[in-house]
Amino acid sequence: MTTDTSACTTLDAQLCFALHDASRAIAASYRRGLAPLGLTYSQYVALLVLWEHGPVTMGRLCRELHLDSGTLSPLLQRLEERGRVVRRRRPEDERTVEVACTPEGEALREPALAVQRRVQAETGLEPSDLARLRSELQALADRLRTADDSIVTGEA
Q1: Alpha carbon distance 85, 103 (integer Å)
Q2: What is the DSSP letter of 21?
Q3: Burial code of 104-129, b = ≥16 C-beta within 10 A, e = fewer?
Q4: Cβ neighbours of residue 89 under 8 Å, at least 6 residues apart?
Q5: For strand 56-57 and strand 85-90, is the pairing parallel, antiparallel, or unpaired?
Q6: What is the pLDDT of residues 44-60, one digit of tens each?
Q7: Chain centroid to CA 91: how far?
Q8: pTM
Q9: How many angstroms separate the CA atoms of 78 and 83, rounded?
Q10: What integer best gives the mean pLDDT of the chain?
Q11: Contact 63, 145 (CB under 8 A)
């Protein structure tokens, strides 16, 4: 009895699995480095946005991280409980919540960026190759989101 091993039905041929496997591996590497700082990977990427842009609204943070507010709120609550961020309503519009780093959150910037440098070194890729890979992955994600939006709206 023979088994169909065509390229489209093997696990190794699946882009989704290769991306999943790489994502798990890089996330594990980040977890090892961030744990001593008392940070999860999700908290780290939220702080990255704040370090880059300063105080931002919850809406902007959701858009930057591609998360909904139901996912982001508990993450920020844990950061706030540890004194790393503050959330406050804007006086000019009570409906808008702004998120900002505290000095404690700001103090994590350099140690967290050292983790990032270590993880990048562990990939064994040259900086130009990393930049190209990142760009290609971002373009892929954008195309897939656009395709998903087209399906939802019925546009082709």
Answers
A1: 9
A2: H
A3: ebeebeeebeebeeebeeeeeeeeee
A4: 95, 96, 97, 98
A5: unpaired
A6: 999 999 999 999 999 99
A7: 30
A8: 0.83
A9: 9
A10: 91
A11: no
Return the CATH architecture of domain 40-105. Answer: Orthogonal Bundle (1.10)
> Tokens in use for 152?
């939802």
Cα–Cα distance between 130 and 120 in angstroms, integer?
8
Residue with tokens 């909904």: 68
Tokens of 116: 């990032």
Q: Report the alpha-carbon distance of residue 109 to residue 97 in Å, rounded.
A: 23
What is the number of other CB atoms lying within 10 angstroms of the CB of residue 99?
21
> Which amino acid, residue 129?
D
Structure tokens at 71: 């996912």
User: 92: pLDDT confidence band, cut at 50, 70 and 90?
Assistant: confident
Structure tokens at 110: 């350099």
